[in-house]
Amino acid sequence: MPETFGKLTTGTELSLGGNYIRTSKFPSGSAGFLQSISLYVKEQTVGAKVKCAIYDSDLNLLANGATEEKTVPSGQDDWLVFNFSTPPEVAATTDYLLAIWNNDYCYFHRSAGDTNQYSWKNLSYNSWPEPLAPGGYGDYVFSIYATYTEVPPPAKKTLVQAALISIPPLIVLPTLREILRVTGGC
How far apart are CA 12 and CA 86, in angstroms? Predict the structure, then answer.
């Protein structure tokens, strides 16, 4: 069953603006491989393009950390799923930045977050920068989350101690017929 980390509920405020990278920082749960990033998007400009990515807490783009790009559908006001072509790997209980980048005006749902949980960068829409150098920080989060397949922890090896069992020597007893034959039938 897929796992998630991020904000799975919609916020109450709307934020807009083209040519901005916006990130929200969240801790991962278990280790695993990302399948997608889901983002709550409301269409404002017909034909606006949006893509997502994942950065580590040192602001480095993860290997295979960029999703597909999507054109926001007309009338969009719901979760939009952005898939990875090759699943990037995340470590357990580690902070990651889920990033959004759009080329034109869109609405994104956000809500209050922790101190500096949000970062932004005004940058013309192009290839993901590496590393990311935020232009500023804020205290809110976007409605964005990652879906991943958990990597099971390695199996624990159990040492089974064997006990050496001593078996007494086998003694063969003669049958009654053999005893009678040897003793002469008495």
Answer: 33
Q: How far apart are CA 28 and CA 89, in angstroms?
A: 11
User: Under CATH, which number does the domain 3-150 receive?
Assistant: 2.60.120
81 contacts: CB under 8 Å, gap ≥ 6:
36, 37, 38
| pTM of the predicted model over 0.85 | no
Number of helical H runs and strand E runs in the chain: 1, 14
Q: Where are the domains of the chain?
A: 3-150
- What tens digit of pLDDT does each residue of 94-124 get? 999 999 999 999 999 999 999 999 999 999 9
Q: Which helix (H) or strand (E) holds 164?
A: none
Structure tokens at 25: 């920082």
Q: Rounded to an integer, what distance in angstroms lies between the CA atom of residue 151 and that of residue 129?
A: 28
Q: Residue 177: helix, strand or coil by DSSP?
A: helix
Instruction: Using alpha carbons, select from 74, 1, 3, 11 the residue that is nearest to residue 39.
Output: 11
In one letter, which amino acid is 12?
A: T
Tell me whether residue 126 is exposed, middle or buried, using C-beta atoms within 10 angstroms of its C-beta: 0 to 12, 13 to 18, 19 or more: exposed
Q: Report the first-to-last Cα separation within the chain, whole angstroms.
A: 82
Which H or E element spans position 106?
Answer: strand 106-112
